[in-house]
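Figure 6 in text form: structure in, sequence out.
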């Protein structure tokens, strides 16, 4: 139902994130990372794919965790600066904030073109605060079902 990864070994996660960002892999279809306002709007990094027949469709939530991490840390340059072992405590705070994010979808099967599904995000506000991360106010987003086969 959900297409997301667990946040485990945090050094590996940030190293991989930095490598992907530097190489440009997966850049197509990603949200534009805006570090200027100091707010990470989690739902900017969520998309929903629909598959199947009209009336029998399914929904899959996709999350660009690399984009979320990059924005909440402050951009690619900041990630590069946090590559040393001395930055372990700060990295752990960011990882705790990201790993506390979860998503639910109100309906993910028996969908028809034109239906609406709602994706809701929750997270541990104390983990976000400890990392100095401000997540946006938007807690849910409506997606219209489209592209199902007749």
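Output sequence:
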């Amino acid at each position: 139902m959900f297409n997301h990864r667990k946040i485990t070994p945090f050094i590996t996660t940030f190293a991989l994130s930095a490598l992907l960002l530097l190489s440009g892999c997966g850049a197509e279809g990603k949200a534009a990372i805006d570090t200027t306002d100091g707010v990470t709007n989690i739902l900017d990094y969520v998309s929903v794919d629909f598959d199947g027949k009209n009336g029998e469709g399914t929904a899959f939530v996709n999350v660009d965790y690399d984009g979320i991490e990059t924005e909440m840390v402050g951009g690619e340059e900041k990630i590069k600066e946090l590559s040393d072992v001395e930055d372990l405590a700060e990295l752990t705070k960011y990882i705790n904030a990201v790993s506390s994010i979860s998503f639910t979808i109100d309906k993910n099967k028996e969908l028809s073109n034109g239906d609406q599904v709602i994706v809701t995000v929750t997270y541990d506000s104390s983990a976000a605060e400890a990392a100095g991360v401000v997540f946006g106010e938007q807690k849910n987003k409506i997606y219209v079902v489209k592209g199902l086969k007749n």
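Caption detail: Helices lie at 10-23, 65-73, 76-81, 88-99, 125-131.
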